[in-house]
């Protein structure tokens, strides 16, 4: 059966052509990212401080000893996260790093599958190789593996949380979110999605797991108090390096505080309006609401507080995948210009135009996140104003009539390739037997990242 799946044969439908073209490219890209780029590593090494801290914990030595006067990656995980991640130091550093990379690869691949299933696609659909290629070509996946960071596991936690939330498995959804927050608070804003849906049991695990793990780790770590007196204050600072948040780039370029706060508050208001419109008019469209609202919350979480790093953008894959939905907010070119800003692995540093290239490289992430939030606000606002002009607000629906009446061509193609990929229309000779052949990052540390 396996040989029949991989043996060479000529594609006979558009869907098959695309799949046959994309699968080899996607698979080879995955292999390159894992066994070449990730194994080679880079000058930025997120894994070494994590391994050293885990080893110190297992040997009863102080853990929170980072020198925050340097710009090298520091160990920043809280006590509960230290407890969970400590087993990585049981074996030698090189093999441990390889295992950690493979763990993140498996987590990303499982998240890829869950993302397909979230939008009713199968591995046999055209979407499968396209999504896999897009993920592993992105900066966020590539640098997560190259720097040996934990973001792949965080992405898996996000997809598990969304699936469990939609299935009303509230306690398990809370446990998954709580485990994620225990290591890194990246997904903490998603608890607001549970609150908006009235799934209050999620709070039990989301809050309980970090509290319990911290209580267990407290007496086991020699210098637990240093996390709260040294590391936490550092995390709350706005630094001008390794930071693509508005405040980080404002500090780097020397913007006045009044202008920085004006930009942040303006964007916060736009995010609040977008979330209100999503809740008011889309909360019953569950997949669309959860995927879109989570993306808006997380983008704001990266952009508006004091710290945001480019490879956090991995958590926006569910939002970007909504493009296959008829009422998606990212079916327009400005949205994908924004995506290029924070997802592209391209570097814009220029030997000929050094100042312009440096500004493009440092600001593209900030501008990308900002533009994405502006696009979502404008699309929602336009739909709301159009529905008010036409007197449709009382119906609780602000989608244009063409969205409500019939699916468009992309939706029909999605159904054909995802639900029954082999039943897609083909040439008149499609029923005849097929002939078979054979047997059945840039070297500048300013733009690198840390855990």
UniProtKB/TrEMBL annotation:
Name the UniProt key words of this record, in alphabetical order: Cell membrane, Glycosyltransferase, Membrane, Transferase, Transmembrane, Transmembrane helix
Q: Where are the transmembrane segments?
A: 20-36, 75-91, 98-115, 121-138, 145-166, 172-195, 202-221, 258-279, 286-304, 362-380
Instruction: Please state where this protein is localized.
Output: Cell membrane
Coarsely, its chief localization is: membrane
Where composition is biased (Low complexity), the residues are 415-430
Q: Quick check: keyword Glycosyltransferase in the entry?
A: yes
The EC number(s) this enzyme carries: 2.4.-.-
Q: Which residues form a coiled coil?
A: none
Segments carrying the region annotation (Disordered) are: 408-451
Query: Pfam families, from UniProt?
Result: GT87
Membrane topology annotation: Multi-pass membrane protein
Superkingdom of this protein's organism: Bacteria
Q: Which GO terms describe its molecular function?
A: glycosyltransferase activity
Q: Which protein family is it in?
A: Belongs to the glycosyltransferase 87 family.
Protein name listed in UniProt: Glycosyltransferase family 87 protein
